[in-house]
Each structure stands twice: as C-alpha cells, then as structure tokens.
C-alpha cells in the first residue's frame, strides 16, 4: 500500500501561453502557477497583457500556443460556461447587471442551470450571510450602490463554489470602506482553499492582499515577487523597468474666472440619477480644482450640465470664459475653449468601432482638421499620431480601432486628445482610471502643465490621494450638493472623507475657510 501523502499540485498552471493579435503580441510564452488558497497578483503596465491572459483562463479568448493545466490535467477551456463548470469564476470591471431586475432575477439569468426562484433566493441569502456579503435577493439593482452591485457579482460567482476566482481591477469603483470589506471576503475565500487571481494598478492594495505576484511587461513575464517583501517603489520598478516619475505642483498666478457655476439646480433625466441642488463653483485661469465624492452622487449629472450634454432651460447658470452657455450644446461650448473627458471611456469618450484617428476627429474644434466644413484626413491622422507619441499610447497606430486598445491605453488617448486641443477650460472625470502608475503620473503632470499655462482645470475624481497631489482647491459632491471649495493645503483627507458622507455645512465651512 502506498502510504505517502498526496502531492499538492498547483490549482492552475500556464505553460508558454502565447496570444498574437495582428498588431501586437499580447502574451508571449507566459508561465504562471497559482496554488490552492493563494492570492496571486498579476502586475503590469497598461497593455502588458493582463486582461488577455485572464480572458484565456476564463475561456473568452483562445491562446495561439501553450498549455493550461487545471489541477495537474491539461485542459482546453472553450467557453466561460466551461470555465465555470470547472470551478473558475470571474468578476469583471464593468458589471453586467440589469438595473430594473432584482438581485435574484439577475443571478438566475447568469446561471448555467435552472433553479426554482424560492430556492435560489434562499441560496443567495445563505451564501451572502456565510461570507459577510449582505445582499437582499429581492432588491432591485438600480437602488444599489456600486459596492453593493459588486457584491451581487461576487455572490453570483460563489454560488458556483469556485476554486479559482479572477478579479479584474475590482476596487476602482469602490469606497475605501468597501475595499476593506472586499479584502476580508477574499482572505476568507483563500483560507478555505479558493485561489484568487487579482489584477490591480493599486500597489498598496496588492501589498496588503496578495501572497505572490507575476509581473508582465510587453506580454512577457519579467519576474515574480512576494509583494509584502517589496516596497511600492520596487514593485513599480519591476513593472515599468525604471524609476517612477514624480509630479510637481508649483505655485502659479491665478487669473480671471473661466468656469462659473451659479446656483445650478437641475433635475436628472436619468430615472436612477441624482438631482443637482444649488451648485456654486468657480475655476479660475491657472488653477486646478478637484471635486471629490463617492460615485453616483451627482458627478455624472454635473459633468453633463457643464459639457452641454444636458442643456439648461436658461443661459445663465454656467459660464465659460464669461459667456453664459446654459443653452449651448457640447460642440458650441468646445468652440469657446471648453474641453472635457467623460468618465465612461467606451461609448461616451470614444467609439470602439472607429479608428483612433476618427475618434480624434469626433471631438475636434481645431481649424486645421476641419476647414470650412472640409476634413483634412492628413491633419487628422497627424494629430492622432501626435497624441499617441506624446502620451505613450501603446497601439497599432492611428488606424487601430479604439476598441482594440487596452483600457488604460484608451484612457491615455482620450485624455491626450483633449489636452492637445489647447483648451481654455478643461474638465476631466477620473483622469487616471485604470491607468498604470507610470502613465498616471504622466497624465497628472500633463494636467498640471495645462494649469501652469493658465488653463482652468476641473478634475472630478474618487481618488482622494490624486486630488491632494494635483489640486489647488477641493470640494466634495454628496447627494447632488456641493460643499464649499477649500484650499487643498488647508484641509485633510479626513475632513474631505467626512464631507463625502454629506456632512458639511456651508456657513461653518465658509467661516473656517475665510
Ligand atoms: N481584441 C483585440 N484586438 C487587437 N488587439 C488587442 C485585442 N485585445 C487586446 N489587444 C492588445 O493586446 C495588448 C494587451 O492588452 P490587454 O488588454 O491584455 O492589456 P492589460 O495589461 O490588461 O492593460 P490595461 O492595464 O490597460 O487593462 C494591447 O496592446 C491591446 O491593444
């Protein structure tokens, strides 16, 4: 009789995985090993090939070469349904939930087997209680915060008893408290033997959570690390192959008011949106003002009102460079020097099925690209190529389709496209969302340079650390109301954090600010 203990095999082993797209090798000869109960980070710059690798493991994309071993047996994962049957779950960055359906209805649509509604509701309650992920199966999705929606996605995965859970940038939409809760759940799952593959650009989170890391650069594995034994700086160096660039905010002279919002109240057109209530704001030439807040508190509506996507019933209320623009559409506001970057990069910021060059043409107000109604494609392409070079966008050239770019690279292109149109007023939502640490500094520095040149810059971001790094003044939006704007140096993360829950009083704060 063989009495020796069974050998613990890796849960997942990739050997020599290669995936080639027409213009780029997304994964080249990638090896990766994940053990049972291990939380393993996949680190790398934008376009390094992380999402492609995860999609291969989840059966969305087929590799061109290489082997996948699942619990020591070679497998060919033909589809996500097959991945789920094997015990692989994936929580995507963009949730695919129907707002008008309940939690249970959404989960039942995504299940591969049919379960009676009452039994499903019971199982959802059981799993959510067991893992400390409070979710009411009968609640409608539209009434839930982003963090709660993510819980629904995780519960959906847990109902399949996964042995491997893939999380692609799960915290970019979460509040700091929700991040801590998520980590508790993931640690608990790992302790029970579930393996976790974790993609994030937030190095402090990787250090707090992950046992090991595989680092990718240009599709190849450049090393492995134990994140807890590294520093943020050494991890960044491994990722980008050089030191992390810094960004510098020097004092400037502030000039005339270029963006003025005066007692702006606006009912939302989205049935699940936020109504704006008596917003007052001013951004002057040469200053960068930040708006902090938890997503869903009126940021989207404020941006729509400022950009012209939603016009006002009266002209007054929003002024750009002294002109009342309330009734003007986005193209008319662009002619006055207003440029903006929406939060949603696919669909709003760019058309995925168009080339980068045509995406540049879409928002242009530049006389060189369109002269008397005639388009100069030579100039359009040259402009797009300049954005690609200046913002280090990794892509197959100006004819590459926007949808073929990795998330962070598309973000760099969209922000770069607006910065390079010489704005007078620049409004950016989530400027570094999904962007790697090196590129994030590049974008922040580019915004600082705009401000130094006298542009009025408004940044709407959920990342407090970022706002404190680049802004002269900061305000908070909560439930459609805007707090007073205070000098960044006179406030603290704690105060701004408190205001984020809506606890601000204009009278007191203005006295404090005076
Ligand atoms: N469907 C596709 N067609 C063509 N090229 C693609 C496609 N999907 C990905 N690529 C390319 O493969 C490379 C790797 O992309 P991937 O999305 O895996 O990167 P990533 O590391 O996840 O980046 P990010 O951090 O920006 O999300 C990129 O250069 C991207 O442009």
From TrEMBL:
Quote the subcellular location field of this record.
Cell membrane
- Domain of life here? Bacteria
Read off the SMART domains from this record.
Answer: AAA
Write out the entry's keywords from A to Z.
ATP-binding, Cell membrane, Membrane, Nucleotide-binding, Repeat, Sugar transport, Translocase, Transport
An example of a Gene Ontology cellular component annotation for this protein is: plasma membrane
Q: Which GO MF terms are attached to this record?
A: ATP binding; ATP hydrolysis activity
Xref: InterPro entries: AAA+_ATPase, ABC_carbohydrate_import_ATPase, ABC_transporter-like_ATP-bd, ABC_transporter-like_CS, P-loop_NTPase
Topological category with respect to the lipid bilayer = Peripheral membrane protein
Specify the ABC transporter domain's residue ranges. 12-243, 259-504
**One Pfam family, short name please?**
ABC_tran
UniProt protein name: ABC transporter
Task: Give the source species.
Answer: Sulfuriferula nivalis
């Amino acid at each position: 009789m063989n009495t020796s203990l069974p050998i613990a095999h890796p849960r997942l082993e990739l050997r020599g995985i290669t995936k080639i797209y027409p213009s780029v090798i997304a994964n080249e000869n990638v090896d990766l090993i994940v053990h049972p109960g291990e939380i393993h980070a996949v680190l790398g710059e934008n376009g390094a090939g992380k999402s492609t690798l995860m999609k291969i493991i989840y059966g969305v994309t087929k590799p061109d070469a290489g082997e996948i071993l699942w619990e020591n047996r070679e497998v060919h994962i033909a589809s996500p349904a097959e991945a789920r049957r094997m015990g692989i779950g994936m929580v995507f960055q963009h949730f695919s939930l129907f707002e008008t359906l309940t939690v249970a209805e959404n989960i039942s649509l995504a299940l591969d087997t049919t379960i009676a509604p009452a039994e499903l509701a019971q199982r959802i309650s059981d799993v959510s209680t067991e893992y400390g992920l409070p979710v009411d199966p009968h609640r409608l999705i539209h009434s839930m915060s982003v963090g709660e929606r993510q819980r629904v996605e995780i519960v959906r995965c847990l109902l399949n008893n996964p042995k491997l859970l893939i999380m692609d940038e799960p915290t970019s939409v979460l509040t700091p408290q929700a991040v801590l809760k998520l980590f508790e759940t993931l640690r608990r799952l790992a302790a029970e033997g579930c393996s976790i593959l974790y993609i994030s650009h937030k190095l402090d989170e990787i250090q707090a959570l992950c046992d090991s890391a595989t680092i990718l650069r240009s599709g190849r594995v450049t090393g492995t690390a134990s994140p807890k034994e590294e520093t943020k700086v050494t991890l960044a160096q491994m990722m980008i192959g050089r030191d992390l660039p810094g960004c510098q905010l020097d004092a400037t002279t502030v000039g005339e008011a270029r963006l003025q919002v005066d007692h702006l109240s606006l009912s939302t057109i989205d049935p699940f949106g936020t109504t704006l209530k008596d917003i007052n704001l001013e951004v002057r030439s040469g200053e960068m003002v930040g708006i902090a807040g938890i997503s869903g508190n009126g940021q989207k509506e404020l941006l729509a009102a400022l950009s012209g996507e939603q016009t006002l019933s009266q002209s007054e209320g929003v002024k750009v460079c002294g002109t009342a623009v309330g009734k003007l559409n986005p193209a008319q506001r662009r002619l006055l020097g207003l440029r903006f970057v929406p939060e949603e990069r696919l669909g709003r910021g760019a058309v995925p099925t168009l080339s980068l060059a045509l995406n540049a043409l879409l928002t242009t107000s530049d006389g060189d690209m369109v002269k008397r109604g005639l388009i100069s494609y030579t100039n359009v392409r040259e402009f797009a190529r300049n954005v690609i070079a200046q913002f280090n966008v990794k892509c197959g050239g100006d004819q590459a389709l926007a949808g073929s770019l990795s998330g962070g690279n598309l973000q760099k292109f969209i922000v770069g496209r607006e910065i390079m149109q010489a704005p007078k007023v620049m409004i950016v939502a989530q400027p570094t969302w999904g962007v790697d640490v090196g590129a994030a500094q590049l974008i922040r520095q580019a915004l600082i340079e705009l401000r130094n040149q006298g542009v009025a810059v408004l940044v709407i971001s959920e990342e407090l650390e970022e706002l404190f790094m680049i802004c002269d003044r900061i305000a908070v939006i909560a439930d459609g109301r805007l707090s007073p704007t205070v000098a960044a140096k006179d406030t603290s993360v704690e105060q701004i954090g408190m205001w984020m829950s809506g606890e601000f009083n204009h009278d007191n704060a203005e006295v404090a600010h005076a």
